[in-house]
Amino acid sequence: MNQNNKAESRLAATGPTQFPVERFAETPTPFYYYDIALLRATLEAINRGADHDGFHVHYAVKANSNPELLKVIAGAGLGADTVSLGEIEAAIAAGFAAADVVFAGVGKTDREIAEALRLGVGCLNVESAEELEVIISIASEMGVKAPVALRVNPEIDAHTHHYITTGLAENKFGIAMSMLPALMERCREAQEVDFRGLHFHIGSQITDLTPYRILCERINALQEEYAGYDIPTLNVGGGLGIDYDHPDEHPIPDFEAYFGIFAECLKLRHGQELHFELGRAVTGQCGSLISRVTYVKQGVGKRFVITDAGMTDLIRPALYQAHHKIENLTSQSDHCERYDVVGPICESSDRFGESELLPVTSRGDLLAFRSAGAYGEVMASQYNCRSLPGKLYDF
Ligand code: LLP
Questions:
Q1: Burial (0-12, 13-18, 19+ Cβ within 10 Å), 22
Q2: pTM value?
Q3: 245-304 pLDDT tens trace
Q4: To test the ligand 1 pocket, which listed residue (57, 83, 204, 278) has its Cβ within 8 A of the most ligand atoms?
Q5: Would you say the CB of residue 258 lies under 6 angstroms from ligand 1?
């Protein structure tokens, strides 16, 4: 039986109501499906949660730079956190004002720095003494003042996957506390620098909020230590995690609790601004990767579901041992079986799930890999000469 016909014949009765399965059946797989209504609801929850004096939320464009999503996020009034000239340009094209764009990253090139200054981005987050000197010399040549914040490494263990931990001394990111006094002084005396403040980021997919309380304490101590310096802005980075196991129970993270910690624990100075740069928490739950089952293969002692999506479409399981909830959208069976769900790529790590409990699954079924709106589409590659995944939106 042709794969497509089979999926269509299964559609009528069973598709979970939140997915437009009829539309899926007509769309070539694999593709990313974005629920823009959920993105809007998430942005409203962010704006409600961050409704405290001086709080400004930026979106970490690296999580998903899809222009349709960026437009909605810009429209909700967030700023943009970027890490390359490409991201700066994508943000501005989507409607973010250059002044609301922050440019971070450990390896900004001379060209990127010059363009960022020319475009008038709001702040360059500096990650080393060496970078600060390059920015000063480029600003001097251009005859402009560079808005600069210093990214401090707060040495906090966020207890997340070691590939996405960034606030420890061993990481390449940020400026060590011990080097901060000299750089603060350099920013104060350099005429080419408009010192904007301090930047921190402790890691990603943080679900226990305690590290944020510790971060607030560190920052309070630093503010006292640098009482003689004007620090207009504090930027506490991103990292708020999402519930990958229960996307339907928790489609929107608890932003009230998250922002509440900073409102409660951080001693902002009079008129000081507090910036956040959230990525995953903004776009993570609104996206799913939709894939069609190519084969159900009987192996020795186990069954494999082989999908037409692979690690080239969603690399998080292969790269970080991450797990995205897998749903069969078209099976009509009440009976469940265990399967290893794997992609077609010639790599053993091309596996989405081991011993997954799914309703009896057949060739042609449509599967959803949930919570794939952040670090999904943006990390897709064309390894094995594959096409990039398609896209489908529900506005
Ligand atoms: N700010 C800075 C300086 C960052 O390095 C990051 C993420 C963010 C903000 C946004 O973090 P979020 O709120 O999204 O956790 N590809 C990995 C995640 C890498 C995160 C890199 N930095 C993944 O798929 O889990």
A1: exposed
A2: 0.94
A3: 999 999 999 999 999 999 999 999 999 999 999 999 999 999 999 999 999 999 999 999
A4: 204
A5: no
